[in-house]
Specification:
Elements lengths: L2 H6 L3 H11 L1 H5 L2 H14 L7 H14 L5 H19 L4 H12 L2 H4 L3 H19 L11 H4 L6 H7 L7
Helix pairs in contact: 2-11, 4-5, 4-9, 4-11, 5-6, 5-9, 6-9
């Protein structure tokens, strides 16, 4: 990948995939940077993440990165964040579905699309945020498919957080 290619990409997932193919060792050294990048991407899409525990988890991830909280506290925050994602994913009762509809109705981008499509977008954002919180704690680093191939990845934020050595 050249400097020009890196600067011109508009798809963060494509950039990461190419970087992983060309420089897998470099990517393994970038776990803190990728963690910051993923959290920043989550905040960029915070309008799709209105749940308090997911937002608290993202703030907790920033605090963990800054050394203000330990792994146990990050895992505690993740427990509640993951529960919010599960509430969207596994909702079946009329009350649970109504709760999801209420969240969707508050998000202009989602309220005009069919319920199941809106629910999936809300769910994808929730799982992306939850995974972003705990990225360094995954066992299969640096590549975690559901995070590093997500449509929530922002090319400009990737360029801000990860600075690879490039040809040309």
């Amino acid at each position: 990948m050249t400097h020009e290619e890196w600067a011109s990409y508009t798809d963060g997932a494509t950039m990461l995939a190419k970087l992983n193919t060309e420089q897998p060792r470099f990517l393994r050294t970038q776990v803190p940077e990728i963690h910051r990048f993923l959290v920043a991407c989550s905040w960029k899409h915070q309008h799709l993440i209105p749940q308090e525990s997911l937002r608290n988890g993202l703030q907790g991830a920033e605090d963990w990165i800054a050394g203000k909280i330990d792994d146990a506290e990050l895992n505690r925050l993740n427990y509640f964040a993951e529960a919010d994602a599960f509430r969207i994913d596994y909702a079946k009762s009329p009350e649970e579905i109504s709760s999801i509809k209420s969240i969707i109705d508050e998000i202009s981008e989602l309220r005009e699309i069919p319920f199941e499509m809106a629910r999936k977008q809300l769910l994808d954002a929730a799982y992306f945020a939850e995974g972003s919180m705990i990225y360094p704690l995954f066992n299969s680093l640096p590549w975690v498919d559901h995070l590093l191939t997500s449509p929530f990845l922002c090319a400009d934020l990737l360029r801000a957080f990860v600075i690879p050595t490039l040809d040309g």
